[in-house]
Write a structure and sequence with these properties.
There is one protein chain. With 271 residues, this protein is of the alpha+beta class. It folds into 2 domains: 116 residues, Pathogenesis-related Protein p14a; 126 residues, Sandwich (Immunoglobulin-like). The strands form 4 sheets. A 4-stranded mixed beta sheet has the order 1-3-4-2. A hairpin with a 2-residue loop joins strand 3 and strand 4.
């Protein structure tokens, strides 16, 4: 009996295995498809090696995460330096327990962008690297709005507390500093020809059983700290307060441009 207890303890304290690059991409594709966003992202082997080298650089230099590498320091490589500069870096946990960028909206927006077609990906312990720059190559012939959460989604988190997003976060530029507990960030992606016609978020509403929800609208093109961080046509809605659990909410957004105007209605249910 003692031996059985000892073995059980060993199982409980065993570290979780890191997700492989292929598993990371599979999880990201599944997250996108579950919300109506096109999947089919493929893994770039060279970028993946760069991410592995960048994480090794962080480990050798005792750095939690960084976008920058210094030539001459232990583990410096050219492809690792590029992976650091051109992707998402975090030390918030691995993909085995969900997307580690879930509470980093600027980073998650790049991973969920419908245009994304190719990534490099690697994780070690709590460190993750996803190289994205150059991977947003998917083309859309017609104008479409995608959202996260997608229409019909259930189990949507009721609140969010963004910490440590660099250079800032969507909420922080509209009076909700990082560390403030808000409702879940809602993502809007306008793609197609409209993306090159100076799209802007004209209006947005979120309605629950009790009526309109107080939300802040974030159009990155109107904020100097954000406009160069994201693809054109990405917008955010941030509920000022947590949403109610087990509740259906209906959202409406209108995106205007020098060309067409698009409007989308959809609903989701909180966890």
């Amino acid at each position: 009996m003692k031996r059985l207890v000892f073995l059980a303890a060993l199982v409980l304290v065993s570290p979780a295995l890191a997700a492989t690059p292929a598993q990371i991409v599979a999880k990201l594709n599944a997250q996108r498809v579950a919300n109506g966003i096109p999947g089919g992202i493929v893994l770039d082997p060279a970028w993946t090696t760069g991410c592995e080298h960048h994480i090794r650089y962080e480990e050798l230099n005792g750095i939690g995460w960084t976008h920058n590498e210094v030539a001459g320091k232990p583990g410096w490589t050219h492809d690792g330096m590029l992976a650091g500069l051109q992707g998402d870096q975090a030390d918030t946990g691995g993909y085995d327990s969900g997307n580690p960028y879930e509470n980093l909206p600027l980073h998650l927006a790049g991973q969920l962008a419908p245009q994304l077609q190719r990534v490099g990906a690697y994780e070690s312990g709590v460190r993750t690297c996803v190289q994205l720059a150059g991977g947003w190559t998917r083309q859309f012939a017609s104008n479409t709005i995608y959202t996260y959460p997608g229409g019909g989604r259930t189990g949507v988190q009721t609140s969010q507390d963004v910490h440590g997003e660099w250079p800032t976060s969507p909420g922080a530029v509209v009076g909700l500093p990082q560390g403030t507990t808000t409702g879940p960030t809602i993502y809007v992606f306008a793609v197609g020809p409209i993306a090159s016609q100076q799209p802007r978020l004209a209006s947005a509403h979120l309605v629950g059983p009790g009526g309109p929800v107080n939300i802040r609208l974030v159009d990155p093109s109107q904020h100097a700290q954000l406009k160069y961080e994201l693809l054109p046509g990405i917008f955010f809605l941030v509920p000022v307060s947590p949403l109610a659990p087990h509740t259906r909410y209906t959202a409406t957004v209108t995106v205007q441009s020098k060309g067409p105007t698009l409007t989308k209605h959809w609903s989701f249910v909180t966890a």
